[in-house]
Amino acid sequence: MNTADLAHPAETVAPRLLGAVLTHETAEGTVRVVITETEAYSGSADPASHAYRGRTERNAAMFGPAGRLYVYRSHGLHWCANVVTGPDGVATAVLIRAGRVVEGEDLARERRGTGVEGPRLARGPGNLCRALGITGEHNGADLLGGSRVTLSAGEPVPAAQIRVGPRVGVSRAHDWQHRFSLAGDPTVSAYRLSPRAKPSNGA
Description:
The chain is of the alpha+beta class. It has helices at residues 3-6, 10-16, 105-112, 125-132, and strands spanning 21-26, 29-41, 69-74, 78-84, 93-103, 149-152, 162-165, 179-182. Helix content is 13%, strand content 27%.
């Protein structure tokens, strides 16, 4: 996977990231996750995007270049990891919502809790970051080289195995069909509508 693969609109890249591999090498060991669920956020054109109102210190990593990691804390509790996409200077990104741990399961379980079942280790964006050991210190990391957090291509996913639907838990543009997941995969998170969801014109 290279910059050219990611230099497209988030809604184009998001389904292509299904099956890709996110890896974090640390002193504790390596955890490797196959991505099973993503959500696209389209910058200034997207009311649910952190970049909807322009560039800030918090969202600066979203403005590129493609292939960087944008990490933010959700509700002051959980870290969430996004792959920056699109041309340099255009703030679009793909939230990695869930994945299947394929290496380092013991370390992932140590981080998540010994009683957590395998399919739940990286289900949901906060749990995925916890399993991988990704925090705010990784914001802006180069996923394509020069970082211990890397993104690489995996086995191609046939279009028939991809499910498309509305995004989870956002209050604006919640009905945009920008959530992509592997059909029937037990690691994919459950859909929930935000209680603050407002009507929109879908995209």
